[in-house]
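Re: the multi-chain job from yesterday

Posting the exact lines I submitted so nobody has to dig through the queue logs.
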Amino acid sequence: MEEQRLITLENISKEFDGNTVLDNINLYIRKNEFLTLLGPSGCGKTTTLRIIGGFETADTGKVIFDGKEINDVPPYKRRVNTVFQKYALFPHLNVRDNIAFGLKIKKMPKQEINKRVDKMLDLVNLSGYGKRSVDSLSGGQQQRIAIARALVNEPEVLLLDEPLGALDLKLRKEMQLELKSMQQRLGITFIYVTHDQEEALTMSDTIVVMHGGHIQQIGTPKTIYDEPKNAFVANFIGESNIFKGTMVRDELVEFCGQQFVCVDSGFGENAPVDVVVRPEDVMLVGEDIGQVTGVIRSVLFKGVHYEMMIDTGNCVWKVHSTTMQPEGSRVGLNVVPFNIHIMHPMKEA
Amino acid sequence: MLDLKMPVWGTWLMALGFIAFIALLVLYIRRHKGMSRSLFASPYTLWMIIFTVLPIILIAYYAFTDANGKFTFDNFVTFWDSNHTMNKQLIEMGFDPAEMGGGRGTVNLDTLVYSLWMAFLCTLICLLLGYPAAAIMADRQFKLGATLVVLFIIPMWMNFILRTIAWMTLLEDNGLINKLLIWLGFERVQLMYNSNAVQLGMVYNFLPFMVFPIYNALAKQDVKLFEASMDLGANRWLTFWKVTFPLSLPGVVSGITMVFMPAVTTFFIPRMLGGGNTEMFGDLIERTFLTANNWNLGSALSLIMMVLILLSLGLLRKVDPDGEGGSML
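And the result, structure tokens for all chains:
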């Protein structure tokens, strides 16, 4: 496993004007991995990416690339390329010269440059656009030029800083799939920064959830979704009901004034915990057979499902269901033990 | 005796008339919504006609006529050959100008060439001095950048004649610099009354016109572009040549325009600092009008200057179609 680690961040901390942006980050990135740094704005994900790219230097800690410390290596000597948030295409160059920029710097022979640029234009489905000015392209096209400009240098690692942020939903979904398939075809390590949890779940091999300069959880999309480590992750990834509860004993938890059987253990007896129940995991049943009963306070149509807020007296549950119940009616709620997820409570409020 | 004082009721009448005029104007504008734009522009159009178009027509009229108002190309021939009028008179009187040693006089043409050369030098020096200055001012990591900008602007609040005279007190034979030199035990140096002094005065006066357009062009550049360039393997030097400099070109072009134009037409500076040894075209035009009292030749010279400026403007317009960068001045 050890030699698979392409990039390692060791105890990275960073301050800007006295504000701690990154606090002791430890992280490794494997070769050919699609790793996503996910978190709300200000969580430190972009700073982490910029430290890997060489645009920021860490106050403390080490950045190790392929076994060598690269803390003081300037960006132009690193074997990584970046796709910038707003693309940062050169406005004075046409599409072809933008893509060829890196190769020309390396003084590659003209024919080789032309061959590679043509190949890249093909890859991003923009052949025939070479002579166009970058300003004349749409957001999606500019985005693909930015990717081509980075990829043409055959970097070992591609850094992407919210590259799809400026695109509309449909285009974004298309580009997500396109990027993922590109990464698999070319066998390049992608480090991707986004605040869009759905984007992260769709594309990543590994997700790093960040908040307040700390890494909250590292794991595969499935682990992150199914077994969030704390209330922040649970809340940030998908929708969830988070209740304050008490672990009565192993595999029995009390929340919302009711005891539920669950599958988690090892929290101790009568320990305070956070309980996560995904809205789609709550089943609506008849009033008489529900584990808890409540009144439907509101119903929203969301396309695929209805979102209902159900008041059970001391808790309000968010429930997703494909069948609608009228507002004000009493219903029963059931949750199977497997879908009750217990977490240690967050340290901060 | 005729009483020139206006009666009181006259003032009231005028005020009433003025108010009525404004009211009518407002009414008119409200009626003709579509007309309002051109109506509002009319004072400026009038201004342009009176102070720009008419004078140019007058200049053209004078340039193509002689003292008696008859159509002639003589003024332009005189530009080419300053002895033209004299030689013509000699021929009329039955002499052969060649025998009298009266060949072609090149004073006018030489002055123009000298002016162009001085303006070219001035532009070049301003560019070489101004670009680094602008780059330092636009550097976001340089905390004193804003202060520098102000330091460049403040001298421009002073009249350029004052600024030029200030230089005289420095450069004079008994000026500050020479006093300092003598105090230090050096020989007195002749600093004024040569081309170098004139050039110094011109560069000093026109440098801000080079610095600010370039500063504008540099300051609005996106940092992300430099990062992108570095990311693609270019070091700082290559990044400057491949990204920063090409993107600042509109500012450079503006700066060149804004220095070259006034430099070519400079007057006063050469007269003060050059002491008449270094006449430039602006001074020649002024002298032709005011001293020689030859409005026809002066107009012709002005017209030639104007055409030259228009030509160079057109040339620069091709390089910098938006004409941006000069907005600050």
